[in-house]
Design brief:
With about 425 residues, the chain is of the alpha/beta class. It has 2 domains: about 220 residues, P-loop containing nucleotide triphosphate hydrolases (Rossmann fold, 3-Layer(aba) Sandwich); about 170 residues, Nucleotidyltransferase, domain 5, CATH 3.30.420.280. The protein has 14 helices and 14 strands. The termini are far apart. About 45% of the residues are buried.
């Protein structure tokens, strides 16, 4: 693994990616997690700013994610590695970087988020020589076309729009746009586009071995996305599509009015036992739901109870929700043995898993649910998302423990069906 401050040496695949960035107006670098996509693109933007005094823009869906991942992580690592000796001044109040161009004058790299109305309005008041849309799986095509109108700075530099992502499903607009030459409505866009794939193994010298092992241990579809960098097909019969997950990641959560820790308990502790599903679910003040964290694990009763109690306190939850059919007294006893003051609400499974899951899947289809895991952890909900997109009701022999826990949480928060029992009748009310 390369130490901080060592010079940047391009790998063969990174050379191809940089050629792609320089070849056409619209380019996409996609692939697995931590493959060096963002570093290569920002490096290219700074090089462009060195040639001519100019303005450049990096946008993510959420400004806070851009601040954490780019301003607190990528830039402090990238600048000493790629541009030792170059003075890059950070303007924290307006979120931009500034440096001297070689021909005189100043260049700037602005950082923004589409979810910040005031900031994006300020950004759209400028014109840019380069616009970089970071993680476009979470950016709508409408936002892309709006930002394209700001790619208009006349500095002598060729205009460039860069995009990157961990590839979502093939229904996403980016697959049609770059692989098929089509807009989302099926019409040909006629623009010059190229794409290049960068995967973690192309950046292996810059990664800790533990991180690669984490990716290799992911479920198959998540491994294909985050390790192999593949666009995925939806699985026929699954309640959730990959686009449902992308939409959940795009939804902006407002102030939370209620948080629960939902448990799908495991009643045995042996090598063949199921995991205990432990999901932290919330309800916001716009009557939307959110998955905040996944604390699921395969462990003893004492340990999963402790994990649930820790999650309860970490997120200042209102209560713990658990299935009464599956060891209801066990859940109460295990949790109250650790903290007797925690409120526990038991919910009863009156219907099949399919019937319970359908109204929650409908909430996703309606754009009512957000996935908002801990900052800068794009794989934090990967196992839940794998269960969502691969579980086929009535056909799969395995038990989707994370899915079950999330379903219990949202049934309780939204009062779905009769007494949270999963009658299939959806009532979008607030507890």
């Amino acid at each position: 693994m390369k130490e901080r401050g060592q010079p940047f040496v391009k790998t063969a695949q990174q050379v191809k990616a940089i050629k792609c960035l320089n070849a056409v107006t619209n380019s996409l670098i996609y692939g697995g997690s931590r493959s060096g996509k963002t570093t290569a693109i920002i490096r290219n933007m700074i090089l462009r700013g060195l040639k001519k005094p100019s303005r450049h823009l990096l946008v993510r869906h959420r400004y806070n994610h851009a601040k954490v991942s780019i301003m607190h992580d990528t830039m402090p690592k990238l600048t000493p590695m790629c541009f030792p000796g170059l003075k890059i001044k950070e303007n924290k109040s307006d979120s931009y970087y500034e440096w001297d161009a070689q021909s005189g004058g100043k260049s700037q790299l602005w950082i923004g988020g589409i979810d910040d109305a005031e900031r994006i309005e300020k950004i759209l008041g400028n014109e840019y020589s380069t616009i970089f849309l970071n993680e476009i799986s979470q950016i709508s095509f409408e936002a892309v076309t709006t930002l394209q109108t700001r790619l208009a700075e006349n500095t002598g530099l060729k205009l460039r729009m860069y995009m990157d992502c961990n590839p979502p499903g093939k229904r996403h607009w980016s697959y049609k746009y770059f692989h098929e030459g089509l807009n989302p409505d099926g019409t040909a866009h006629g623009l010059d586009t190229q794409y290049c794939v960068l995967n973690p193994m192309d950046n292996i010298e810059n990664l800790p071995p533990e991180y690669v092992r984490i990716l290799e241990a992911l479920p198959e579809r998540q491994r294909q996305r985050y390790l192999s960098g593949m666009y995925l097909n939806d699985i026929e019969g699954a309640h959730w599509s990959d686009q449902d997950i992308i939409n959940a990641k795009m939804r902006v959560t407002t102030d939370l009015v209620k948080v629960v820790v939902a448990i799908d308990p495991a009643t045995t502790d042996n090598p063949g036992s199921d995991e205990c599903g432990i999901m932290v679910c919330g309800l916001d003040d716009q009557d939307g739901g959110v998955i905040l964290d996944d604390r699921s694990a395969k462990c003893s009763t004492r340990k999963w109870a402790q994990r649930a109690v820790n999650a309860y306190h970490d997120y200042n939850a209102n209560e713990i929700v658990a299935e009464s059919n599956q060891g209801g007294d066990l859940v109460k006893d295990a949790i109250h043995a650790i903290d007797p003051n925690i409120k526990i609400t038991m919910v009863h499974a009156a219907n099949s898993k399919r019937a319970r899951a359908e109204p929650v899947a409908q909430l996703y289809e309606l754009g009512r649910i957000a996935h908002d895991p801990p900052e800068n952890k794009e794989t934090a909900l990967a196992k839940l998302e794998e269960e969502y997109t691969t579980w086929i009701p009535d056909e799969e022999p395995w038990s989707p423990n994370r899915l079950d826990a999330a379903v219990w949480g949202f049934h309780h928060l939204f009062k779905l069906g009769k007494d949270g029992g999963g009658s299939g009748r959806t009532r979008f009310g607030v507890v």
